Amino acid sequence: MPPTEARSDAKTGTPTPASRPTGPLTSAFESWGRYPRYQAHIVPMHWQSEFPANIVGLHNGVLPVGMGRSYGDSCLLKDGNLVLTTGMNRLISFDPNTGILTAEAGITLAQILDFAVPRGFFLPVSPGTKYVTLGGAIANDIHGKNHHVAGTFGSHVTQFELVRSDGSKRLCSPTSDPDWYAATIGGLGLTGLITWASLRMRPIVSRMMDVEYTHFHGVDEFLSLTKLNADSTYTVSWVDVTSTGRNFARGIFMSGEHSTVPGELKPSPEPKLFFPFEAPGFALNKFSVAAFNTAFFHKQMQPYKELVQDYEPYFYPLDAVLHWNRMYGKAGLLQFQYAIPWEHAREGTIEILREVAKSGLASFLAVLKVFGDIPSPGLLSFPQPGITLALDFPIKERLTFPLIERLADMTREFGGRLYPAKDAAMTAAQFQHFYPQWEQLARFRDPVITSSFWERVTGERPAL
Length: 464
Ligand SMILES: Cc1cc2nc3c(=O)[nH]c(=O)nc-3n(C[C@H](O)[C@H](O)[C@H](O)COP(=O)(O)OP(=O)(O)OC[C@H]3O[C@@H](n4cnc5c(N)ncnc54)[C@H](O)[C@@H]3O)c2cc1C
Fold this sequence. Notes:
The protein is of the alpha+beta class.
């Protein structure tokens, strides 16, 4: 099979390795929230065989990274070395009989889709953007709109290779080195470099999706719709976090299925829009966001709508505008995502939504979803059965961080936990409470690998 071509800057919004300097410290690599911003050396990788020779003699630790689509500091290493994997992006094999695709870890899900969709296959689990790498998807054990029926991404990874900084290699699967398999899935890149992985794809017969959009008012209506649609493959809701009173927690529940009517199977067009500059800090405020939310809710006039639509706007509405994170201005944004178990999921969600509405800080990107009970294969995986809510907050001095800390404490009181891939603010005490198994993961950590997130929440430092 011919190697896939590396994506250009214009397509993915992230520089390709060839354009990255290897020498001096640079802040060219940002996480999606653009906070915090740290300098690091970039070590670009094109071939699996380059590692670990390419980190010999480096100081201050190493971290493998992909597309930098994590929001906070789990893909950053202050003054250290980022092993950038996006140049290591070749397809290795594909078996249409089993749907098993094997590729190098730096390939993006967008590149996989471009290859697989024309052959009648789709990703088993997809996040809200396709501009993430296979390695990044494994290291955060990402979840998608089908979590309740498919579990996490890691559940569909049949095997991968892990290379340690001492050059040793492990073939990891549920049956071969299963403890390393579990530690690496959701292991935040700390156990070593994933060089390649095999993924079980799902068959499709068309690009099109059969989609239903339904208005709801309040968390109870959201939960009723979830129950009613328990058998739908993909479900997710947008929720208005600015409204109070009669409109408190109103939203749109979306459910979708791959169309069973055979249709065109072609790759997606290149995105044409991009956010060209950093918006001024005042552009996103409680009035503009509330106005957007009201308009978005009423864009769909009828309380219920059915349509057939392409998978791109259904799965990746935000990918249509590259660099949309610039909309939050220079200061950047903080994401906040919790998973609260069923026991307190309803009351926790109501209380947290109340607190957010009171603050007037949240943005329009608020996603509410139910996690199912398929166990995640990862030691440190985030999802757990219950409700998950993801929110964006523009960073505002003296307002955003105290609010996030309050919300994190509330999450803790309701027995939930936060998602490291979306975090730049949880305290060490909060993290260690949410993930008491972190010490087990620490035993699998490669001695030279670390991240700013890991140092912040555990105090551990690299041996390099
Ligand atoms: C718009 C948007 C929507 C999103 N929606 C979702 C969603 O619905 N569900 C969800 O779960 N997440 C979601 N995310 C988060 C995103 O899917 C994850 O953060 C993902 O892991 C990012 O992948 P990446 O390639 O950008 O990796 P990076 O962010 O660069 O790195 C992520 C982690 O992977 C590690 N890593 C990367 N490559 C390797 C490798 N080869 N070997 C070992 N470790 C490696 C890094 O060390 C780091 O710990 C979303 C993000 C955005 C921007």
